[in-house]
Amino acid sequence: MVVNLPFEPVVVSNEEREKDIDESIKLISELEELAKVHPKKGAVRKFTNSIDGTSIPVNSWKFNEWDYSSKKLTLPTYARGLFTIDNRIVCRGYDKFYNVNEFNEVSEEVLSKSTTGPYTLTVKSNGCIVFISGLKDGTLVVCSKHSTGVRDDVQKNHAMAAQQALELQLDRCHMTKLDLAETLYKLGLTAVAEYCDDNFEEHVLEYKDDRAGLYLHGLNFNSPKFRTYPMEEVNSFGSVFGFKRTKFRRFDTFREAMIFLSKAAATGSFEGEEVEGFVVRCYKTGTHNDFFFKFKFEEPYLLYRELREVTKQFIQGGPQNVHFGKHKLICMDYLKYIMPFLHDNEKLRQSYLDNKGIVELRKKYFDARGQTGLEVIDEEVSMAKLEDEMRLLKFGSSQTCKYAIVTVATIGCGKTTTSLALANLYPDLVGHIQNDNISRPVGSKLVSGALEILVNKPMVILDKNNHKYVERQKIFDDFAQLNEIIPSSKLKFICLNFLPMPPKGDTELWKVTRDRIIERGDNHQSIKAGGSGIGKAEKIMQGFINRFQPVKPRKEPDSKFDLIINLNAKSDNSTFENIKTVVESLVSFASDLDIPRPTEEQYQEAFRKALDYKPSINKIVHSRVGPRTPVYFGTSILDPQSLQERIEDLVGGSSELYEKLKATGRIMSEFHVTMIHYKSKKKSQEIKALWNRYVKSEFAEDLLKIDEQSSKITGQRILLPSKSKADIKLEKFCCNSKVACIKVSVDRIYRADGTDISLGLGNKFPHITIGTINEEIRPAESNNLLNEIYEFNATDGIQCLDFKDSEENSLKGLPIFAHY
Ligand code: GDP
Ligand code: MG
């Protein structure tokens, strides 16, 4: 039964109806053809599922997001959201529309000419889109952007959640699914609504209690050509079936509409409520063709997103993990306020990471300030003093560079004495971390300790022999791996090269350093030339000399040093001269720090104090409790060339970023999928337990073996001796303007004999980072991108292309490695 409507429905003539049918047949056959060439440019992806409660198969058609705006392509349809059964369109979304000024065709200037009024400005609701329609037999069809019905391959089923909400809503206004389905079927329409409910999924605006529900914003004809009802009818249709209203305003001219929109942008609200922006409905000039564009308010939504991101970073890695963006000061002020709430509330932290309670926490802060987001943004400039306060709390980074000073020497060259003297001279500038003070296993503790020092001081000396390339390499790697605060352009590496000439066979050097060690006696953490006699100490010293690999400024890893200071360790009081040499070099190299030159007396005093130093730590070497723990486990993509081919087959020149990465040599030289990182332990108890399973049970023996065979090798990746492997599948190429990556699934982890290892992953969105636009952007940015895509359905400025589910996109037998 068709429900009586409070308006006169548009009567579609038989002629028009037939035309629609013919065009639909043509469109669907074109789509079928294009689906075959997926995933090429301009191809369409077909997804088939059955309507809930039936076995009726329905096809959903989805183009690559990027192709809608491509000038080189003409797509057979621009409908975003298109569902068909056989040769009939069942649900039809709006034609893809864009934000004002997103590109030239939608610039204000062009739009003012290419469109005509009246301009209907509808409030843009902020949830997920839902398409509703009916079949001939009275079945109600509820679809999300690209899917309908029950699925077992998704965590959240938007279509099913919206359908439940719809059923409740129909009950409340004494309507049935059949009423709605038959009415829509009879009129040949799709009802387009926004499902907004924080209990299901939080977006940027708050929708709870009364505000939660389905906001009807369109009635589209199920025809290939985009035709849609005026807003008055949409709202009266909505009121019959219990939908929430979509507020709107109408203006005759483009100018009036734009004036209204800019004014609304200044307050970020409409009729007293926060809104994200407006969708403007008008016509293509010279036609009656419906045409849409949108006007999204930048603020306070950019701020809200940043607040959400810094909160997540803070929960996951503490203050030092927080990266600030545009609204650094407000974010600092906000973090200061919310820290106590998060501090003892594990549940709050967990649910926040699960995208629950984001709005509430933000509101708490704005309520406490008694201001709205936009008001706070206006005041941001006056928050400058906060920055110092937050730096004390270890937030963020300063403007000046940070300097990691790495010693290269053998025992007795005066590394520690030089470092101590420098730290004495510049207590506020120079920190000092001694490898000899670090408990075993050392792992990456030297670098993580150095990074901690760099939070408060601009320089740190990493006091260790670093006598081999791998040791130097490990320092660079550890910094790359662990540093999350200092932009890489702001992190400089300086080498204190105590041995510009090879030490082997150098009797002069041997005499000076040996004498010093004898003199030092037991005054060292581990090398005791006193009680146990010089013999053992001599052996250790000789070992370092024999293994020494001199600094080669033009070769990796030494070419990574921004400055190499050559020193001399061969004369009796060489250290005194070395200290002066280092200071002179630092004064001129680190000019951003305005390092003062000490007086002769200050030099002497600092040197004397350093000579008097006695270590307080006593350490017995070679008494390790269990093997060293790696930084992360990963699987190696063995053939980077072929991966690049896969990408290029798929992307085919359509990705601006990928082309840029290629042109600038910023495609990673090797690819991997991180399976679990030791840092992700912090995320939850489950991941912590999972990490323990990796290191303490599944791969414990591997780690022991690695340690036995190569306890000296402290570099990079080591394949697991057990030859465990993983199979992965390439799923989606994703990129924005900063990072390109591939979302993958890790399908199986198994031993050399083929038996399964049931281990999960510590990463929600396993991926291969392909490259980042510049050094400032860390590969970890892939996580943020995938989070935006998968958790928030973000599409703006994002390109996603699906890999075909095929043999060649399944990479099998990839070796698992541990990265130290
Ligand atoms: P490291 O093994 O490279 O860290 O060497 P240290 O800095 O510990 O120096 C070894 C020993 O030599 C220590 O007892 C220092 O006090 C001493 N030492 C270092 N440099 C000099 C120097 O220029 N003159 C003198 N007389 N002793 C030095
Ligand atoms: Mg030392």
Sheet of most strands: 8 strands, antiparallel
Distinct bound molecules:
guanosine-5'-diphosphate, magnesium ion
CATH class of the largest domain: Alpha Beta
What is the correct CATH architecture of the largest domain?
2-Layer Sandwich
CATH level 4 superfamily of the largest domain: DNA ligase/mRNA capping enzyme
Name the overall outline.
Answer: elongated
User: Number of DSSP helices?
Assistant: 24
Given as residue ranges, the uncertain stretches (5+ residues, pLDDT < 50) are: 619-624
Whole-angstrom Rg: 32 Å
For the record, give the distance between the C-alpha atoms at the N and C termini, rounded to a whole number: 69 Å
**Helix coverage percent of residues?**
25-40%
Structural class: alpha+beta
The domain tally reads 4
Protein name: tRNA ligase
Domain tRNA ligase phosphodiesterase: 575-807
Domain tRNA ligase kinase: 405-568
Organism: Brettanomyces naardenensis
Question: Your description of this structure?
Answer:
The chain is an alpha+beta fold. Helices cover about 35% and strands about 20% of the residues. The strands form six sheets. Strands 20, 21, 22, 23, 24, 25, 26 and 27 form an eight-stranded antiparallel sheet that branches. The chain has a five-stranded parallel sheet with strand order 16-17-15-18-19, sandwiched between helices. Strands 1-2-3-4 form a four-stranded antiparallel sheet, covered by helices on one side. A hairpin with a 5-residue loop joins strand 13 and strand 14 (about 290-295). The protein is elongated, with a radius of gyration of 32 Å. The structure holds guanosine-5'-diphosphate and magnesium ion (MG). Guanosine-5'-diphosphate (GDP) binds near residues 413, 516, 520, 573 and 575. Guanosine-5'-diphosphate (GDP) binds near residues 411, 414, 572, 574 and 576.
